[in-house]
Amino acid sequence: MNRTPSAIRRCGAGLAILMLAAFFSAGAFAEPSPGALPNPAQEARARALQKEFRCVVCQGESLDESRAPLAADLRKLIRARIVAGESDEQIKQFLVSRYGDFILMKPPLQPDTYVLWFGPVLVLVVGAGVVVLVIGRARRRARQSPLWSEDHQ
């Protein structure tokens, strides 16, 4: 077997191409989004509604962006309810009653959603506090060290 640097580079390049192909083809197996509604106004409503709801699987994406099978099912459900003549508010109420306020990309500000609204800020504040405490302790230990006092005398 030839182990020259050029052979190793070719093998590495081939492996990189194979990994990229696998990465980009992964989306080909995702659940397809439902077909467009025949009425352009209904299709626009469906797309707007899909952007207002969070994928309960992905959690960081809207139903419109998500490729999860559950998101595809919810997109189909939204379209079916639009065709059935339900209003946007009725569709929202149905999904919120089924999945809770968490499904909304912009949940209402009320006591049971405070965690959704203020949780990330709270995590950042606590994290910053921990960093300040750790740095403060490290500085105090360094000042109490005999090496520090010798250097500063």
Highlighted features:
64% helix; single chain; 153 residues; Helicase, Ruva Protein, domain 3; elongated
Oligomer: single chain
As for the number of domains, it is 3
The top-level CATH class of the largest domain is Mainly Alpha
How far apart, in Å, are the first and last alpha carbons? 65 Å
Report on the structure:
The protein is mainly α and 153 residues long. The chain folds into 3 domains: 1-30; 33-108, Helicase, Ruva Protein, domain 3, CATH 1.10.8; 113-151. Helices cover 64% and strands 0% of the residues. It contains 6 helices and no strands. The chain has helices at 5-25, 40-52, 69-83, 88-99, 114-144, 146-151. Helix 2 (40-52) crosses helix 3. The longest helix is centred in the last third of the chain and has 31 residues, at 114-144. It is elongated, with a radius of gyration of 27 Å. The termini are far apart. Residues 25-34 have low confidence and may be disordered.
Write the layout of secondary structure elements.
Layout: H1 5-25, H2 40-52, H3 69-83, H4 88-99, H5 114-144, H6 146-151
Helix pairs in contact: 2-3
Quick overview:
The protein has helices at residues 5-25, 40-52, 69-83, 88-99, 114-144, 146-151. 64% of the residues lie in helices and 0% in strands. The model is unreliable at 25-34 (pLDDT under 50).
